[in-house]
Structures are given as C-alpha cells and as structure tokens.
Amino acid sequence: MDTEKKCYLCNGVNFKVLDGTVRDYxxxxxxxxxxxxxxxxxxxxxxxxxxYEDSTMLNEAKLTIEKWAKQNYNQNFDRAxxxxxxxxxxxxxxxxxxxxGFLKNIKPFVRACAGIESSKYLRQHIIENHKIQVFPNIExxxxxxxxxxxxxxxxxxxxxxxxxxxxxxKHLVKDGLIYLETPNANDALLTLxxxxxxxxxxxxxxxLFLFTENTLRTTIEKAxxxxxxxxxxxxxxxxxxHWLVKGLPNGHNIWDYFNSNSxxxxxxxxxxxxGKCDTLVAYITKG
Length: 287
Fold this sequence. Notes:
Elements: E1 15-17, E2 30-33, E3 39-41, H1 57-60, H2 65-87, E4 91-95, H3 101-106, E5 112-116, H4 120-130, E6 134-135, E7 146-152, H5 161-168, E8 172-183, H6 188-191, H7 196-202, E9 209-210, H8 213-222, E10 225-232, H9 237-246, H10 251-254, H11 261-274, E11 279-286
Parallel strand pairs: 4-5, 4-7, 5-6, 7-8
Antiparallel strand pairs: 1-2, 2-3, 3-9, 8-11, 10-11
C-alpha cells in the first residue's frame, strides 16, 4: 500500500493494512511498514495533548478506580514479586503507574519510589490512598538519582517514543536500568493462530505502535541506549484456548481449571522459542 504516511523508524512509504478492526476507532487501521516491520495506527490525531490528563477510559468501561484497582491487584502483585530481587533497596520510578498498585506493593522494600501518571484522577487516587508522590509527566520530575525505571505497557502509547526515551537518560544513575514491557506484534494469537476475534478486540486507539523484537531494539538504540530483549507470556494456555473456541477474552479466569504452573511454564517456553509470546521485555542501559 502506498500512502503519504512515512514510517516512524525508517521513513519507508510502503505499508500493508493489517487484518482486524481498531475497536474504539473503526475508521482507523493498523499499517505494517514493509521495509522495517514497524506497525502503527494510520493516524494519531485522536490523541490530543490532554487526552490522558482528562481520560474517561474507566467511565467508558463502567469502572470506578477502586474496581479497576481490584481487577489489577493480582497483576501488580505478581509484577512486584517477580522483580523484587532487582528492585529491593533501589530508588524506583514507575512511568505510567496507573492505579499505583505496583508502587504500593514495592514501597516497603525499596529505598524510595515515585510515579509518573498523566491522568489527574489516578494521580489523586495514588496520592490519597498510597501516600506516594506522583508527577503528571517526566518534564515535571526533577530527580536525577533513579536506579530503576519501570514502564509496563506504556511506550506504545507515545507518538514519539524515541524522544520520550531520550528524556529519561538524565534521571538515571550511571549504571541505572530501564525495565520496559510492551505487547509483541508476533503474538501467537495474531501470527500463529490467526484468531480473527482477537484481532478485532486487541487493536486499540491508544496503542499507536506495535513492536517486534527488531523494531523495539531499533527504537531503543535510536534513543541512545543498549538493550537486551526477552519474551514473556502474560496470558496462559487457557486464555488462548478460550479465544480460539469461544472468540472471547478472560479465558484464564473462566477456564481456570486448565491453569497449572508446569503447563503454563511449558507453554511460555514453547512460545518464547517461537518468538510468539504476547509480551516483549527490554532491559535497557545507557549506551
């Protein structure tokens, strides 16, 4: 497909329109650059400067912050538990900290922690309930001694992720680490099972980019960093089976009798070997 749009990473002009609708903006499509493989939405104009500050996403989903935080509890607990050995006694900044559940879990074990969160409603919730300092953006954060920054499914929301990553450098200590998670464009449901229902559900107007290992590495290196990229599987086999049979999410809860540590670990290892886990993890250090 030839368009006037240029690829964010390589300035390529040849794109392929991917299958699947953008669930909240059906007029948009996802475009894959035929040169470097970066996937991006066809247009970013709906993301205004105040889009996240005044976000009504929870209202649209008919969720209170408290109910959303409860839904996120297990995920935040698991993330904190998994990364605790890396975070313990460090100074941590969580960027895009949402309801603050991750920060709440690590607070007793780290030297200090703070967050960056665009939504004024979520910032208020965190400050009032967790007594943790939260800033609306990186420009208003002035610390320069951060040991570890965490970005859980955040980078894909930025119109210019390279410039954003560059801004983080001055806040990191010399041997500091950025731990970043983002969805994998080669997710098995997209590229192995070719699940139409999942394609029509997973593409979202807030996700401006969808990265492969190669395009994520290029993005990070263009920002002046080094990185090691691995893959993890957030959702287990039961979730995938449910998508394939029922065409609906939440299978890991509905069919939870399929869940076992040994089965899920084996499935994750298999998908990782194929490069088709649902999540990319980047360990980023200064160049």
